[in-house]
Specification:
heterodimer, A: 338 residues, alpha/beta, Rossmann fold, four-stranded antiparallel β-sheet, 12 strands, globular, B: MetI-like fold
């Protein structure tokens, strides 16, 4: 495999709030290859969004990156100044956000919102930028782009606004597109259209996508590789087919078991019991241990990240942060009968 | 900008109709209240001979039934004639307002310029430096400006700068320095108010999602704030500026009294103690019309500031 496009090592991000320091991300490692769609999945507060936003230092007030390196094409993003980062943001790395209703400036035409990103990063005149904006609207399949470009965001539906957001993020043909819950605020049919569009654009333009979501269905449909986050750490990482076929981490299993199965309609759902840890004082060992049905005494000490070369229990491309992947772990118990 | 095509003529016509109705209500109410107060323009400590009082009442139509007086007055208003002053012989209320306004509008306009030119930038600077010394300083001064009444500011400033230091004249507007203290005293409160409002709205706007989008586009921090933050945060500021203009341009009785300025605010209060019926009515009408016009202008400004607002499809 060729050298990765992005390689994030030991990222730690914390938020200083009035009620204490929240350790949002605790040592996340992430590798992204060209043209790949990497899914980051986890529940709210698992650190998936903060991980992405840390890459571009787009943190809300109080957020600080305390350690880590993010090698992107030979440059460490995390050590760049804010000024230097403005040359990466929107140009080499584009971002789309969760809520297209609020992510566009309500008092500016969508055309201007695209033109401004083009004029920021490209030596390009206003007319050329406008022509390019029309082209981008065609690319994301917004009908009658020549007239729609002069509309304001409130004149678009939610799905169309998300297309506008995608057009803005792709305007400068970035190497990476960060899609932070891009379909969460949309209804299901629109959701599918947007995901299909993202996949198609990846195929046509060849950029890599980091897709953040809490929805395993979205991951199954879209991603090539998945990382499951919990308590600010990566719990498991695998190609999408492997993750669904043979989840290794008990948390991943819990998530998969929680997906409603239409064949079992009428039976109670099986949620992951308990609630996520307080990230102001996360448990010293595995963050999932307090909720884990298979927790052992050793789980009070932080498990290493096993990969297929260390543990015969994992496939070569799979990684799991669980003592159960250790070769000394007790033999796997049969799946719970639920 | 599609502002012109969004200008709703039907709405405007309705609005002006409503303004006229409001004005009629104000005239009627003021007229009724004024006549309900005991006394009259020609009743004073120094008793006039009854025949002189009767002659004066006859001259100004005060001997006629009240409904007659009311209709006569309305007729005058329709022709923009606010009638003669009862107290100052030979002076019409129209010219009284014009003279007073000439003084008041000068200080008022300067005060207004201060409110916008100092208040808004101070708020922006404070927001840009949130939590650092420029913010603390600006908000300290603004809190002072809001908490300390204008007449205290006026009196203290007058004592220090006019009396002790002699930098400014103590009264009158004969020289440019005469404007400084009245303008500061007049604008102090609103300047502080606008600075605080600008700051809090800008900070509120800067936590919106589209600001994150603007940052994610790689725009420099300053561009993000000025291009995406400011416009959206100015809408509430514009809302208060309408009434502020009306307030400042129609004068402050207290400030005009302290600096001995012959402005419209002074006329207003004097006309009430004098029971100068036409002057009370005239100045009230003038103030009401001015305020309604300002609010109308603010509503029209919204169209330009916020494309989401439209008055066209209102039922």
């Amino acid at each position: 495999m060729t050298a990765p496009l992005l390689s994030l090592r030991d990222l730690r991000t914390e938020y200083r709030t009035d009620r204490g320091v929240v350790q949002a991300v605790r040592g996340v490692e992430l590798t992204l290859h060209r043209g790949e769609i990497l899914g980051l999945v986890g529940e709210s507060g698992s650190g998936k969004s903060v991980t992405c936003m840390s890459l571009l230092k787009l943190l809300k007030r109080g957020g600080h990156i305390t350690s880590g390196t993010a090698d992107f094409d030979g440059v460490d993003l995390l050590s760049l100044s804010d000024r230097a980062l403005t040359r990466v943001r929107g140009d080499r790395i584009g971002v789309i956000f969760q809520d297209p209703m609020s992510a566009l400036n309500p008092t500016m035409t969508v055309g201007r919102q695209i033109v401004e990103v083009l004029m920021q990063h490209r030596r390009i005149g206003k007319n050329a930028a406008r022509a390019r904006a029309v082209e981008l609207f065609k690319l994301v399949r917004i009908p009658s782009p020549e007239t729609r470009i002069d509309n304001y965001p409130h004149e678009f539906s939610g799905g169309m606004r998300q297309r506008v957001m995608i057009a803005i993020a792709l305007a400068c043909e970035p190497d990476i597109l960060i899609a932070d819950e891009p379909t969460t605020a949309l209804d299901v049919t629109i959701q599918r259209q947007i995901l299909a569009l993202l996949k198609e654009l990846r195929d046509r333009l060849g950029m890599a996508i980091i897709l953040v979501t809490h929805d395993l269905g979205v991951i199954a449909e879209t991603a090539d590789r998945v990382m499951v986050l919990y308590g600010g750490q990566v719990m498991e990482e695998a190609p999408v087919a492997d993750l669904f076929a043979a989840p290794q981490h008990p948390y991943t299993r819990g998530l998969l078991a929680a997906i409603p199965d239409p064949r079992l309609a009428g039976r109670p759902l099986s949620p992951v019991r308990g609630s996520p840890p307080d990230m102001r004082s996360p448990p010293p060992g595995c963050p999932f241990a307090p909720r884990c049905p298979r927790a052992m005494r050793i789980c009070a000490t932080p498990p290493p990240m096993y990969d297929g070369t260390e543990s015969a229990r994992l496939r070569p491309t799979q990684r799991s942060r669980c003592w159960l992947a250790d070769t000394n772990a007790p033999a796997p118990t049969p799946e719970p009968a639920e | 900008m599609t502002g012109a095509s969004r200008l709703p003529l039907m709405w405007l016509a309705q609005r002006i109709g409503m303004m006229l109705l409001t004005l009629l209500a104000i005239i009627t109410l003021t007229f009724a209240l004024m006549h309900a107060v005991p006394g009259g323009p020609f009743v004073s400590e120094k008793m006039l001979a009854p025949e002189i009082e009767a002659a004066l009442n006859a001259k100004f139509g005060l001997d006629q039934p009240i409904w007659r007086q009311y209709l006569n007055y309305l007729g005058g208003v329709l022709t923009f004639d606010l009638g003669p002053s009862f107290k100052y012989p030979g002076v019409s209320v129209n010219s009284m307002i014009a003279d007073g306004l000439a003084v008041t509008a000068q200080t008022g306009l300067l005060a207004m310029i201060c409110v916008v030119a100092v208040g808004v930038p101070a708020g922006i600077v404070a927001a840009l430096n949130r939590g650092r010394w420029p913010d603390t300083l600006a908000m300290f001064l603004a809190s002072l400006g809001i908490a300390v009444p204008s007449y205290v500011i006026a009196t203290v400033a007058l004592y220090i700068f006019a009396l002790r230091l002699g930098w400014t004249p103590a009264f009158g507007l004969d020289d440019w320095r005469g404007y400084i203290l009245p303008v500061v005293a007049l604008s102090g409160f609103w300047m502080s108010f606008v600075a605080r409002l600008t700051r809090s709205n800008l900070l509120e706007t800067m936590s919106q999602d589209y600001i994150m989008t603007a940052r994610a586009k790689g725009l420099p921090a300053r561009t993000v704030m000025l291009r995406h933050g400011l416009r959206n945060s100015l809408i509430p500021v514009v809302t208060v500026l309408g009434p502020v203009v009306a307030n400042l341009l129609t004068g402050s009785f207290v400030i005009e009294q302290i600096f001995a300025l012959p402005g419209i605010g002074r006329h207003f209060v004097q006309s009430i103690t004098n029971r100068d019926y036409t002057a009370i009515m005239g100045i009230t009408i003038f103030y009401a019309v001015f305020l309604m016009l300002m609010i109308l202008i603010v509503d029209l400004l919204y169209l330009w500031l916020d494309p989401r607002i439209s008055y066209g499809d209102r039922k």
